[in-house]
Amino acid sequence: MVVTGNDLKKKTLQNYLSREFEMKDLGFLKYFLGIEVSRSSEGIFLSQRKYALDLLQETGMSGCQPVNTPIEEGLKLCVEPNQVSTDKRRYQRLVGRLMYLAHTRPDLTYALSVVSQYMHNPREQHMNAVMRILRYLKNAPGKGILFTKNVNHQSIEVYTDVDWAGAVDDRQSTSGYFTFVGGNLVTWKSKKQNVVARSSAEAEFRGMALGLCEALWLRLLLQDLGYLSKQPIRLFCDNKAACDIAHNPIQHDRTKHVEVDRFFIKEKLDDKIVELPKIRSEDQLADILTKAVSSQVFSKFLDKLGMCDIYAPT
């Protein structure tokens, strides 16, 4: 069991539990369910280095040639006729093992979102994509997330982005978001939208609503923990049309497909719960959750996300 809180409340809870159950205090958290926890003057670092190394060892990829990105730049996986089949059970097991790594590895999120769409009938190209993720792990198995101290610990920021009609099989769009609390990355998601969007603004608007729902949940969570945040949520979207629609009080034909999402976001804007600061496309962190980008862009955004490797040689 992991117990957290201030010293007084934590001690009170531990005393109560020790009266009810036979238990032992193991001290500061260091390892839990494959997640390693390290502390320093900079903050708390979470990684799954041992889990990643064990996975590479089990799959025989310990001596593979490493790569800098988990998915090849511009790659679009799809279902093609006459493709060579692969071992379905092995594919499912590998993807399942890799998905557990995504608890501390947001850099794997988009690649895993793509390969998990073919669990029912994987082909050779899909297995090759999984093998590339393993080769990327070889490059930095100890990479993880650093949580640093921040005075403004109640601030909530969301970066949302969408790859419009990017799926080759059905032309559905892929949404992605990163959420930050106090400047630290806390949640992330990459998911294909359920419907086909007729414009990029429509797809981006659905992505904004998805990210805002996550941020509102975090706001309520902070409130339950005793931190009533009065600061508006900062929602970063680089699509000008989607931001203009959010501020426009008039309903148009082009927005009728996202009418509910439009009213939802407009209500939060009017109540000063959320604001939409301008952001350049080259600064949109969620871009790596929606498409396969170059190694230079990928590396730049990982630094901004607070990802590092304390096990890497200096």
From TrEMBL:
It comes from the Eukaryota. Residues 1-72 form the Reverse transcriptase Ty1/copia-type domain. PANTHER family: GAG-POL-RELATED RETROTRANSPOSON (PTHR11439), INTEGRASE CATALYTIC DOMAIN-CONTAINING PROTEIN (PTHR11439:SF467). This is Reverse transcriptase Ty1/copia-type domain-containing protein.
